Amino acid sequence: MTLAAASPGFLSPTGVEVAFLLVGLVTLGAAVLSVTTRQLVHAALWLVVALGGLAVEYLLLTAEFIAWVQVLIYVGSVVVLLLFGLMLTKAPIGRSPDADSGNRPVALAVAVTAAAALVWVVTDAFRTTWIDLEGPARGSTGVTGEILFQHWVLPFEALSVLLLAALVGAIVLSRKKPEGERD
Amino acid sequence: MNDALDVALRLLLVFLAFLVLPLVVGQTEHKVMAHMQGRLGPMYAGGFHGWAQLVADGVKFAQKEDIVPKDADRRVFQLAPAVALLPYLLVLVAVPVGPGDGAVGAVVDAGVFFVLAVMGVGVLGSLMAGWASANKFSLLGGLRTTAQLLAYELPMLLAAASVAMAAGTVSLTGILDGFAWWWVPWQITGALVFFVAGLAELQRPPFDMPVADSEIIFGAYTEYTGLRFALFLLAEYAGIVVLCALTSVLFLGGWHGPWGDAGLGWFWTLLKTAVLAFVVIWLRVSYPRLREDQLQKLAWTVLVPLALAQIALTGIVKVAIN
Q1: Where are the membrane-spanning stretches (chain B) (predicted)?
Q2: Which residues in chain A are contacts of B76 at CB distance < 8 A?
Q3: A76-88 CB burial, b ≥16 within 10 A, e <16
Q4: How far apart are CA B39 and CA B26, in angstroms?
Q5: Scanning every residue of chain A, which has its alpha carbon at the shortest distance from the alpha carbon of B117?
């Protein structure tokens, strides 16, 4: 559990590191609010803040491409889809006291376990790795593309096949059966 | 210090363009629509052909009482116009108007992704407005906005991806550096798909189902008055400017012109943008509104296949010329 001696210290943070921490706090706050608020649509809007905060964190780590994709996919599509679903079904203005579930403790346990596992794995894997924020961007589109399509082609393709399967599955599930036919 | 001044000056110029260009488009719309419909349009405000009509409109909007409906969700209702308008300002920062790194608000490495991602955020404003107004017409308008966005975002992205493939970069300045005249016929299908999908995203006629005044009053903006309503209108015109500028940068060569690229680049960009903005207004006067099912059908059965075909064509040509 010893950090590499050559690693930068924690006691004299640079401006970027301070900004990173502050944005992280905002993101965490928005995330907590989005699961504790009693107003359904507000939860979705707080999720926008949390996901946008994550995009800013990527930007601060010089991963520009990932940051914009994060905004495009999560803020621009996933949250819009969420809001669409909420508005189509039930989106009351004001508090919804019935929007609670008896599974709360179980959900909390699962969330804490997942978070702990992720934090443990990530810190263990990258403990002595430091990004040089001053030098040329390490996460530019060109670098990301080269790494993705040279070193990680197989996982990338496997993921796209998985997504395709999910897409086909969704279409099959949502197709109406002819009248009178039962499954 | 010089760097800070440089950045401040650029951002100031972008901000000025953001304030002026949408108003110019708005005034042009007044006059072009009027002449296409055999009338004069505004003629009195300001003296010469009513040039100050929009300024007068602005003063009128500022004087109106700002009303929030009693049952509305106050904070979301008041925040919505800003969420709708600000993304267009951010997009404008990344649009290059001339050759080199000097003629753009800020050089963004993943420019295409940046502009499309930020433009997609703007629709959240309409959604928030539609939900927070506590009005059934507003909610219907918000729903229609979302359905439209979900359908048209995909072809727009695919068309932009085709240009990125052709140029081998996702930076807007990089795309313009690689541009050659034969890209226009090569990418023409993608250009049409991009422009049509952009029109739908802006909810401009013939894709104005979300604000169809004869059915749902004014969609998500029904409950808005005064300055907040004016901000939504401004967002629409800023959206026209952004869409036309992006189409000209991505597909029509931006600052490339028949002559004088180095000095006149900004002029060619503005000219192309202005011609496209005229087409946007022209379409409003000449086409009837599409029905909701026709909207969806156009996106999924025409635009998406066309965009995919364009990508295939781009790939084939790209491999062939390498």
Answers
A1: 42-59, 79-98, 110-133, 154-176, 182-200, 229-253, 265-286, 298-321
A2: 41-42, 45
A3: bbebbebbbebbe
A4: 17
A5: A72
CB B254 within 8 A of CB B269: yes
- pLDDT bucket at A5, cuts 50 / 70 / 90: very low
- Quick check: B131 and A41 CB within 8 A? yes
DSSP per-residue letters across B78-91: HHHHHHHHHHHHHH
Task: State both tokens at B142.
Answer: 């918000």
- Alpha carbon dihedral A86, A91, A94, A97, in 10-degree steps, equals -80
pTM over 0.80: yes
The token pair that represents B83 in the structure block: 């969420």
DSSP state of A83: H
Interface pTM, i.e. ipTM? 0.79
Sign for the pseudo-dihedral over CA of B32, B33, B37, B43: negative
Q: Which of B76, B110, B127 sits opposite A141 (nearest CB)?
A: B110
- Is B314 within 8 Å of B183 (Cβ atoms)? no
Inter-helix orientation angle A40-60/A79-89, to 10°: 180
DSSP state letter for A126: S
Residues of A in contact with B142 (CB under 8 A): 87
For B71, name the nearest residue in chain A, comparing CA atoms only: A93
Which of A41, A72, A93 lies closest to B117 in CB terms? A72
Q: Which amino acid would we find at residue A86?
A: L
Give the CA count within 13 Å in the CB-facing half-sphere of B261: 12
**Spans of chain B below 70 pLDDT:** 1, 100-103, 105, 260-261
Which tens digits make up the pLDDT trace of B216-267? 888 778 888 888 888 888 888 888 999 998 898 888 887 777 776 677 777 8
Q: Is B139 on the interface with A (CB under 8 A)?
A: yes
**Per-position b or e across B95-117, b if 16+ CB within 10 A of its CB:** bbbbbeeebbbeebbbbbbbbbb
CB atoms within 10 A of CB A179: 5
The residue type found at A180 is G
Q: In chain B, where are the structural domains located?
A: 64-321
Interior/surface letters B5-22, b for 16+ CB within 10 angstroms, e for the rest: eeeeebeeebeebbeebb
